[in-house]
Write a structure and sequence with these properties.
Length: 286
């Protein structure tokens, strides 16, 4: 008898700018759980007899550890808000600053007195400054360009009502993703993370057939100002699944009172971790 081939997931570098050995590799999601969740204590600090924190919630844990994580392959710079435009004595716009500063305080100063410059040839005396009348966002990733989509492509989406929802940016994924026949992947935001301010548009791709790079469109839903999201930050969750036609019989009704009472009574003698100890599929594993 032939053994069934073990499912596989391949991440293959396709970007010409980056070195596959030098950038962070995709990892299993259980190796990249959200930082805030790592630090969370399982018990309420006021009393161990009170309801525990999300650290004790197994459904929460199962969501954040499912599948694989794609980390950010290069530093991503986000500049958002109402920038200040700086002009020289020839009335040429020379610099855009994303700082919270009174523009009257800038006029007459050298740029090097306002911000740190890596290149002194960029220095000049500020003769005029004005603040943008509209909210602007600028995205830049080291070693590559950030492309975009027009807002017409998501006409009617509630995201367009967000402060920067009309600016749809797109990261060029450096990885080609391949799965075996009849397997696809779901690409989604990292579960229960909420750490970056990046909100990606999610999708499902049949990666047994399609092996070209899958780009990642997103919007910024963070604060105004200048932000650097560092290389290695978990940004996307990849969940492989087998495409199988399953005929699921669906009914809608009321729960059987006997079943409800049985479950309630089984939990009556357990103080904490009820779901984990009584119902979770992993509870019987050694």
């Amino acid at each position: 008898m032939f053994k069934k081939k073990k499912p596989y997931l391949e991440f293959r570098m396709v970007h010409k700018t980056y070195d596959a050995d030098a950038i962070p590799h995709p990892v299993r999601a259980n190796k990249a759980v959200p930082n805030w969740y790592k630090k969370l204590k399982p018990d309420n600090p006021r009393s161990k007899l009170e309801v525990g924190t999300a650290k004790r919630c197994v459904p929460f844990l199962d969501a954040v550890t499912q599948g694989f994580i794609i980390p950010l392959w290069a530093d991503l710079v986000i500049q958002a808000g109402y920038p200040i435009f700086l002009y020289n004595e020839e009335k040429e716009r020379r610099m855009t600053l994303w700082i919270n500063e009174n523009i009257e305080n800038l006029v007459g100063k050298r740029l090097s007195d306002v911000v740190k410059l890596d290149d002194n040839t960029l220095d000049f005396t500020i003769y005029h400054a004005s603040r943008s009348s509209e909210r602007i966002i600028r995205c830049e990733i080291m070693g590559d360009e950030v492309d975009g989509h027009s807002e017409e492509q998501i006409a009617g989406s509630p995201t367009l009502k967000l402060p920067f929802g009309r600016t749809i940016s797109k990261l060029a994924n450096p990885w080609s993703i391949k799965t075996q026949k009849d397997w696809s992947i779901q690409i989604k935001n990292t579960s229960n993370s909420f750490e970056t301010g990046l909100v990606f548009f999610e999708g499902v791709v049949d990666t047994d057939e399609y092996n070209l790079p899958i780009n990642f469109p997103f919007i910024w839903n963070g604060d105004d100002g200048e932000h650097i999201i560092p290389q290695g930050t978990p940004i996307l969750q990849v969940i492989p699944f087998e495409r199988k036609k399953v005929d699921i019989h669906v009914t809608v009704g009321s729960i059987d009172d006997i079943d409800l009472q049985k479950q309630n009574k089984s939990m009556a003698g357990v103080l904490k971790d009820r779901y984990k100890r009584l119902f979770w599929h992993n509870r019987k594993k050694p």
